[in-house]
Amino acid sequence: MAWDWQVFCEDTLDRTAVAGCFGKNGDITYLDWILSAWGWTVSVSLLALLLALASGMVVGVLRTLPDSKWAVRFGNGWVEFFRNIPLLVQIFLWYHVIPAIFPALKSVSGFVLVVLALGFFTSARIAEQVRSGIQALPRGQRHAAMAMGFTTWQVYRYVLLPNALRIIIPPLTSETMNIFKNSSVAFAVSVAELTMFAMQAQEETGRGVEMYLAVTGLYIVSAFAINRIMAWIEKRSRVPGLSAPSAAGGH
C-alpha cells in the first residue's frame, strides 16, 4: 500500500492541494486541523495536570495529618472514589449526569468538564504518591520541627512537603506522561483533540494509516517533551543522598 502524506496539504472542504500546506483566506488544510487538535490536546492535558497537582497534594496531605480522623477519612474516600471508577465513565458522569443535577453546569463547555474529570481522576493517583512520599520520610523530621515550635502548616510547608516532593518526582513523571495519553478520551464528549481528529480525518480521506501515524507521533513528542522537563526538574531539585536518580532523569 502506497502512503500519501500529501493528504495533509489538502483543503478539508474540497480536497484540493494547497501550496505550502497551510490554509489561507479562511481555508483549512488537514495540517492546520491536526495542529489545532494538538493544541487542544496540550491545553486539556496541562490544565488537568495543574488541577491534579493542586488537589492531589491537598488530599495527600490530608491523609497524613496526625489526630485528624475526619480529614484522613475524607482523603481516603477521595482516592478510592476517583481511582476506582474508569476515566471514561467519569467523563460521561461530568458531561451528562452532573449538569442534570446542577443545572448551572449546563452552560459549561465540554472542554472544562473534561479538564475536571481528567484532573480529579489523576489527583487520586498523585494523592497516593504524596502520602507515600511523606510517610517515607523519617519521623524525626516531623518531631524535630514540632519541637522547634512549628505549627502543623509550617511543618508541612517547610519540612515535609519539600522533601517528599523530591522523592516522588519519578512517579510524578509517569503520571504527567499518562495525563497526556489519557486526554485521548476527550473525543467522547466532542472535544476536538488528536483522537477525534484522527477518527474524522480518516472518514473523510480514507487515509487512516497516515492520520493515525501522525497522531501517534504527536503523542510521542508530547510525552517525551514532558519527560525531559520532569527529568530536568528532578536533576535540579535532587538532594544528594535523599533520592536516587530515576530512569527518566539521566546522569
Automatic annotation (TrEMBL):
Keywords from the named record: Cell membrane, Membrane, Transmembrane, Transmembrane helix, Transport
Subcellular location: Cell inner membrane; Cell membrane
Pfam families per the UniProt record, alphabetical: BPD_transp_1
Membrane topology summary: Multi-pass membrane protein
InterPro entries in the record: AA_ABC_transptr_permease_3TM, ArtM/GltK/GlnP/TcyL/YhdX-like, MetI-like, MetI-like_sf
Primary site of residence: membrane
Domain (ABC transmembrane type-1): residue spans on this chain: 38-230
Residue stretches spanning the membrane: 37-61, 81-102, 108-127, 211-230
Keyword Membrane: yes
Family indicated by similarity: Belongs to the binding-protein-dependent transport system permease family. HisMQ subfamily.
UniProt-recorded name of the protein: Amino acid ABC transporter permease
Species in which this protein is naturally found: Comamonas nitrativorans
Lineage of the species this protein comes from: Bacteria, Pseudomonadati, Pseudomonadota, Betaproteobacteria, Burkholderiales
